[in-house]
C-alpha cells in the first residue's frame, strides 16, 4: 500500500465507481465489514456508498489516515477475482 496520504488519494482516485470490501476497526476488538462502491474522494476523506440490504447507513466516509494507520483495509472486488484466477 502507498506510504503517503497523497499516494493513497491518487490510488483511490483510480478506483472511483468500483465495488469494494471494507474492514474497519470498530473498537474494543471489533471489526466492522462492509461492502459498497467508492463514490468520491476529497482532500482529506473518501466516501463509500454502502449496499442497502446489508447496512443501515447509506454511506460512510473515512480519512486517508485510517488507511495509512491500517485502521481501515480496502479490497476491490476486481482484485479478489484476479487472485482467484491466478490460483
TrEMBL record:
GO terms for biological process: regulation of DNA-templated transcription. InterPro entries: Protein_Veg. This is Protein veg. It comes from Viridibacillus arenosi FSL R5-213. The lineage of its organism: Bacteria, Bacillati, Bacillota, Bacilli, Bacillales.
Amino acid at each position: 500500500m502507498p506510504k503517503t496520504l497523497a499516494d493513497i488519494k491518487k490510488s483511490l482516485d483510480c478506483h472511483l465507481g468500483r465495488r469494494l470490501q471494507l474492514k474497519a476497526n470498530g473498537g474494543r476488538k471489533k471489526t466492522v465489514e462492509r461492502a459498497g462502491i467508492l463514490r468520491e474522494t476529497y482532500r482529506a476523506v473518501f466516501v463509500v456508498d454502502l449496499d442497502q440490504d446489508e447496512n443501515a447507513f447509506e454511506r460512510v466516509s473515512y480519512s486517508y489516515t485510517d488507511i495509512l494507520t491500517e485502521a481501515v483495509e480496502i479490497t476491490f472486488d476486481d482484485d479478489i477475482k484476479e487472485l482467484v484466477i491466478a490460483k
